[in-house]
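1st attempt posting a full record on here, be nice pls
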Amino acid sequence: MIFEFLLFEQIAKNVEKQIKLICLYVKVKKQTNMKREDLPQDKKIIKGEDHTLRKIFYVTNNTGNYESAGSDGWEVENMATRQAWEDMQEKIEAARQRVINGEASPIEYYMYKSLMDVNILAGYIGKWRWIVKRHLKPSVFNKLKKKTLERYAAVFNITVEDLTNFPRPNNS
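the predicted structure (as tokens):
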């Protein structure tokens, strides 16, 4: 009982903190003439090799003129980005498992790995969505012509061999 209360209290504190951060984010976004000193510089989550990846914003300087200024971002944005990447990694791993288990074609895995969905992939391939959805089924994928496989491979920037030699289910 005490553990449940402590857990609930911790969740409530986290939610309260997130609400405050979202309010700050909205307040900053609504400002049209943000000054250089108001630009958030929270710890960033994505860094280049030389630690120079920064987001550029247009701010007003002391004379009121606009100039560009770099920002490491702010906690709300970083948290949302981190959560989105974690969700995408889970989708990619789930698709990989479905392919290995024989429940989906490798197209599904490479589609998510390339940060696409069926609509986007259909646009790149030049086929209807329902056709791309069919190609996500292993039984249909195994019958695709080489030309179609080449189109998918080109979109995913891989070879046809990479697409067709994805690890197969253990019972095959």
